[in-house]
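Hi F.,

I've been meaning to write this up properly since the lab meeting, where we talked about keeping a consistent format for the predictions we share between groups. The idea is simple: the sequence comes first, exactly as it goes in, then the structure tokens exactly as they come out, then a line or two of notes. No screenshots and no reformatting. I'm using this chain as the first example so we have something concrete to point to.
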Amino acid sequence: MEYLDNQSKKIDTTSSLDMEKLKGDGELTKVHPQMSSFKLYTGKNIPKKTNNSKSKQSKNLVKEEVKPIHRKGLAFRVVSLTDKMLFMDNMSTMLRAGLSLTPALKTIKNEVKNNYFKEVLDYLCRHIENGQTLSTGMKHYPKVFPEMVIATIEVGESTGMLSDTFGHLADIMKRQKELKAKVVGAMMYPIIVILALLVVSGFLAMVIFPQLVDLFESGGIKLPFVLVAVRTFNFVVKNYWYYVLGALIALIFLLKIIFSRPKAKLFLDTTLLKMPFLGKLNRELALTRFAGNLTALLAAGLAIVQSMEIVSKTLGNLRYKQEIALMAKELEKGQSLQSAMAKRPDLFPSLTMQLVQVGETTGQLEEILGKIAKFYEDRVNNVLNNLSTILEPFLLVLVGIAVGFIAVSVIGPLYELTNSFAD
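Output, unedited:
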């Protein structure tokens, strides 16, 4: 395994030969390679041993693995995407500045506000000081560090490009954060309109309509279906609200259990991809993440089969997840990526397949995948930026239908009641 020292020079830690270091007086002295890698990780030199026994020296160098300590009282064991992005970016900056891993981790740990993330970084410091690698320590916290991050860090450790690896991961998380923020921002307008419509409808049903129902009944007016339904709803809520609340909670848990099963979730994700507007948006989101993550893993030095297996686990849509895992097995048997995509035209557009074929033919697959990711990311951003404009006519029609339905339901009985007073 190769690492970088503080002067960005490669150190081969897998060689069995001792390295020679030149003293000030010109004498050559032998230094074990493990000492240099230890210094890279911890910033400390391994103490000299007075005992010449090789077995005793190796026993002192290799310590027992540090086990993670999960303290009680940390109710929310969640690390946000922003915290992870800042961690990757700060690690890249400090490693490029010549700081070793342990001081860098301790510096970030002192600045982190999230108590759970502070615990994770504390464990990584103790793990590295014990002579272990960073990637093996990250494997104990899979919810904080996904498999893609761990695999990329492993490659960075083996190639000696750990600072660049952290920087690349920070860029990926930054793009994910920006995309997530755009999705949330684009959905705010329709969500606010729908919530306002529900609040107004609830106020009318619980406060205004009951008074109108009493007025119409006292005048002997036949109630329309809407007012009958409102009267029944009010009666049920007032007298059996605990049953209604229990039924809603049970329904939520039942739906959660159903759609947590692979078959039900696959059916939901497949149906979502076939919907007119949302299907196209979800497909382009999946292609953006697929091409972007695959580019990052290939740039880190992973083989394409292993990269495809890891990318399949990073996608949210189960249909894409399963098909890309099958594509990895097909690539392992010798098929090209373009031919594997051609078997799935509903998931990969023809433009994507043509560009991938060009990349495989010219040997520039990594660069082509980066362009594909940028292309679909721009398309998604364009849709999200104009989403409020696209949905505005639909929302206006929805509000108009709701207002018209309520008006017709009330105006008819009011007209009859007015005629009865006139008579």
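Notes:
The first helix runs from residue 33 to 42.
The CA atoms of residues 375 and 423 lie 72 Å apart.

If this format works for you, I'll send the rest the same way.

G.
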